[in-house]
Amino acid sequence: MIELAGLRKEFAGTVALDGIDLSVPAGQIHGIVGRSGAGKSTLIRCLTGLERPSSGSAVIDGIDITAQRGAALRRARRSIGMVFQHANLLDSLTAAGNVAHPLKVAGVGRAERRRRAAELLDLVGLGDRADNHPAQLSGGQQQRVGIARALAAQPRILLCDEPTSALDSATTAQILSLIASLRESLGITVLIITHEMSVVREACDAVTLLADGRVASTGSLRRVLGEPGTALARDLLPLPEGREDSAAEVRASGRASVQVALAGTSVPELFALAETAGAPIAGVEAGTLETIDGLQVGRLRLLTDDAQALSGALRAAGIHVEEAA
Amino acid sequence: MNHPMWLDNPAITAELLPALGQTLLMTAFAALISVLLGLPLGIWLWATARGCLAPRPAVHRALSALVDLGRSIPFIILMIALIPFTRFMVGTALGWQAAVVPLSVGAIPFFARLVEAALRDVPHGKVEAVQMMGAANGQIIRQVMVPEALPGLISGATVTAVTLVSYTAMAGAVGGGGLGALAISYGYQRYQSDVMIACIALLVLVVVAIQFAGDRLARLADHRR
Ligand SMILES: Nc1ncnc2c1ncn2[C@@H]1O[C@H](COP(=O)(O)OP(=O)(O)OP(=O)(O)O)[C@@H](O)[C@H]1O
Ligand SMILES: [Mg+2]
């Protein structure tokens, strides 16, 4: 359980966090998204004591991290696992040594450390790389070692700052399913910063959009996507890559298009609606469709002969029309 | 030439080896002391810097000034100024044992700066990663900083040792013994160029050997490749 209240952080001249209130229940995988400079990293760092907020509190399982110093802070940190964007492994240690490091710091004996490290490396699929130094591992493998290390001391909370942004999509999927399975088996709470909306769609239960150091919107994935008009919903489900600006192409070819965001309306229902209103849909130029938590959501660019009539009809039926041209 | 040359020259046959021994002993002891004292000083210098492990800007500035003072005093002057201290430490101001004192005092701040630079090269993210494990500063220094900076620390110690070799020659000029003293008293003052050449050749050999061994060790300690 993570609770941020009135969290504020100023650096000389800039306000990085401007009063953040946020609550993440135990066992949730919570995504943090937002533009570069929005304050995402600062927020996570305030939860670790690596950064001291100017005011406000960051409470993890009943302990206000911002109020801890010295030995108490070190103790509190042992229940938090942190995965960094660049794995930050120690080059002087092997993969197994890196994974076992938190246990060494905690005073766990050598035999137990070795056993746990082997176990965790197996968990992240690197059981055969125990004796390799980080320089002998690929970026994705290093990141997986970093995750294994973050889990070594059995934390209650896992904080991840862009854990997959340096990875290809296959490795990203691997790491996300690893995080999901950890939540299932260990019940840990996960806070994950990302700029990849696909990560949020695939891995998160809830998401928070930060803008200029404030919470611009937050809620379960289902709720956020259920309000198709918001910028966050639009970012989460964009049109397929390369088709975002295809409206101009459509126009050039002498046709008209209407872009809609769907939440809870199926495509057949959409076509039927248009048909009944006398403004039939001639086709779909581009689209994204997904079912998230039982909710059909998506974004479509529809082809039509009369954009005015179609958008009017759909609006009247409560469909969110984003552009018509 | 009016003196016996090369292998007929007693300055070479009888004195070259003992002089080499003195140079090696001076260098080894001074390097050892500089590493033993310069390492903690360098760590302290690094850790007290702004935004570092234990930021104490005032302490950092004071240490910094002290170290720079030590490095800026010309060695020959340091050696003379330290004579009373040397007498107090080793009972005499002559001989290679006495030379070790000013050599060490001169090299400690030099090595400390190299230590600080090597530690600064360790990415701060690694420190933070280990801080997140709940490690205390002492653990961070022992388990992260020293092992991660080891290649740089070994290179720094190598540079220090090489610098010390050339300083032993200066120490030799004022009673420290060693190859430098031999080169000056025979090669320079008595125009025996064979002695001069032999001494220089040996000094070059010593420097090359130290550099070779240092590079070798640094590479062994480097797991980044
Ligand atoms: N140590 C610092 N000193 C001064 N300003 C800082 C510092 N750290 C962050 N900032 C500022 O705070 C703001 C938020 O930074 P932060 O790193 O939290 O952004 P972010 O959302 O993580 O961005 P990105 O997606 O690029 O990682 C930025 O304007 C940044 O310049
Ligand atoms: Mg960031």
Structure description:
Chain A: One of its GO terms (cellular component) is plasma membrane. Chain A: InterPro entries: AAA+_ATPase, ABC_transporter-like_ATP-bd, ABC_transporter-like_CS, MetN_ABC_transporter-like, P-loop_NTPase. Chain A: It holds the Pfam family ABC_tran. The complex is a heterodimer of chains A (325) and B (225). Chain A has helices at 40-46, 70-77, 95-105, 110-123, 139-151, 169-186, 197-203, 221-226, 231-236, 246-252, 267-276, 307-316; strands spanning 2-11, 14-24, 29-34, 55-60, 63-64, 80-83, 157-161, 189-193, 206-211, 214-220, 256-263, 283-292, 295-304, 320-324. Chain A has 325 residues and is α/β, with parallel strands linked by helices. Chain A has 2 domains: 2-218, 3-Layer(aba) Sandwich (Rossmann fold), CATH 3.40.50.300; 237-324, Alpha-Beta Plaits, CATH 3.30.70. A 6-stranded mixed beta sheet of chain A has the order 6-7-8-3-9-10, with helices on both faces. Chain A has a 4-stranded antiparallel beta sheet with strand order 2-1-4-5, with helices on one face. Chain A has a 4-stranded antiparallel beta sheet with strand order 12-13-11-14, with helices on both faces. In chain A, a hairpin with a 2-residue loop joins strand 12 and strand 13 (295-304). With 225 residues, chain B is mainly alpha-helical. In chain B, helix 2 runs antiparallel to helix 3 (57-72), helix 6 packs antiparallel against helix 8 (137-176) and helix 8 packs antiparallel against helix 10. The termini of chain B are far apart. The mean pLDDT of chain B is 93. Chains A and B meet through helix 2, strand 6 and helix 3 of A and helix 7 and helix 8 of B. The complex binds adenosine-5'-triphosphate (ATP) and magnesium ion. The site of adenosine-5'-triphosphate (ATP) has 11 residues of chain A, from strand 2 and helix 1.
